[in-house]
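Q: Given only this backbone (217 positions), what sequence would you predict?
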């Protein structure tokens, strides 16, 4: 009886990440991944039930490695809300707008009509991240820095505002790259809208509804 280990699982994810990146989802095969790991397809299927499940787990590992520290840093920043959101938005979009991430999200959208990959992706990734952002926004509402409202809805709307000028054009092929300066300006515009809707009087007095990157003297 084979004993599953975390080290073996990580090795499979490492190999799968390379194969998916080089061959794409359709071109990747479990046989090739197994060959790179140095095992059999049976071993792969004992850890991951399908190629779709393996692909989603590869995506989520990359996202957690990149985004979890950013969310943790955001949750601990209660001093200057506009600045905290600006920094968070720029860093998150830096990852979401990267070529590998855009390529992976295109695969998820394309495969969602044929399998449960879209549901898996959402439940294990974006939904968890959105919940953490919602918890942060809820604390800001309790502190009086945001107007009392539904924090979950606020988090969803913030995400939509951040992505509409950046991620969406890349997904559709309208844009081929999103340089840091364009991301920075897009985040500023997104936060003007977000803080205009949710910012409290105290937040507006600090400049949050006009330019989140400028602290008032």
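A: Predicted residues:
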């Amino acid at each position: 009886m084979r004993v599953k280990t975390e080290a073996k699982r990580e090795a499979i994810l490492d190999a799968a990440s390379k194969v998916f990146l080089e061959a794409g989802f359709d071109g990747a095969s479990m046989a090739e991944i197994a060959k790179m790991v140095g095992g059999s397809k049976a071993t792969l299927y004992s850890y991951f039930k399908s190629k779709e499940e393996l692909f989603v787990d590869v995506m989520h590992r990359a996202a957690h490695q990149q985004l979890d520290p950013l969310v943790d840093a955001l949750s601990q920043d209660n001093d200057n809300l506009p600045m905290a959101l600006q920094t968070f938005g720029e860093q998150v979009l830096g990852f979401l707008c990267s070529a590998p991430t855009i390529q992976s999200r295109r695969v998820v959208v394309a495969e969602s009509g044929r399998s449960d990959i879209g549901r898996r992706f959402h439940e294990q990734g974006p939904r968890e991240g959105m919940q953490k952002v919602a918890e942060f926004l809820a604390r800001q509402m309790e502190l009086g820095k945001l107007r009392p409202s539904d924090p979950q809805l606020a988090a969803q709307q913030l995400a939509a505002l951040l992505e509409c000028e950046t991620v969406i054009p890349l997904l559709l092929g309208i844009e081929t790259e999103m340089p840091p300066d364009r991301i920075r300006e897009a985040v500023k515009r997104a936060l003007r809208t977000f803080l205009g809707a949710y910012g409290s009087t105290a937040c507006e007095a600090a400049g949050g509804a006009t330019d989140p990157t400028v602290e008032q003297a």
